[in-house]
Amino acid sequence: MTVMETLAEAAAGRSDICSVPPEPHPRPDGQDSYTISEVVAFTGLTAHTLRWYERIGLMPHVDRSHTGQRRYRNADLDWLDLVGKLRHTGMPVADMVRYAELVRAGHDTYAQRYELLEATRRDVLARIAELQDTLTVLNRKIDFYADAGRAPVSERSR
Fold first, then answer.
1. To the nearest 5 percent, what fractions of the chain are helix, strand and coil?
2. What is the dihedral of CA 80, 86, 91, 94, to 10 degrees?
3. Which of these, 63, 67, 75, 97, lies nearest to 9 by C-alpha position?
4. Got the DSSP string for 30-41?
């Protein structure tokens, strides 16, 4: 099963590739074929990055026009949105490629996909906790300096 087939099944409600559907990209109504430059505009990725994703197996096979130009579909844009989210988690590219391979392998890989995403979630939660601790320290320092700036000059030297 390809990533596109899996995404199509998810869109039809027959499988669950992620718990929350991706936010739709600002796409023209009724359109389902995009050039690489249109995808660059929609995603903010570079053409080089899109070709690299395809080359390393992170992107599934992208259809081509009769002239050989890549033609992306809405499902490709949805996949790129998920890849972007995985990038934001800090997931290594090798793990993202592994996830893509598991998706292409079909339903029998649900447990492996679950484990990979669960490990990523644990990493994200740990980073969030670290950032919360950092934010607490920053807030304390900001409050200190805000209060110090308001104290009368005679009290600041005490």
1. 65, 5, 30
2. -30
3. 75
4. T---B-HHHHHH
pLDDT tens per residue across all 158 residues of the chain: 444 454 555 555 454 545 555 455 566 666 888 999 999 998 999 999 999 999 999 998 898 999 999 999 999 999 999 999 999 999 999 999 999 999 999 999 999 999 999 999 999 999 999 999 999 999 999 999 998 877 666 655 55
The pair of three-digit structure tokens given for residue 123, joined into one six-digit string = 């990493």
d(CA 59, CA 94): 13
Which residues are CB-contacts of 75 (< 8 A; sequence separation ≥ 6)?
A: 3, 4, 7, 8, 11
Residue 158 CA to residue 27 CA, distance in Å, equals 63
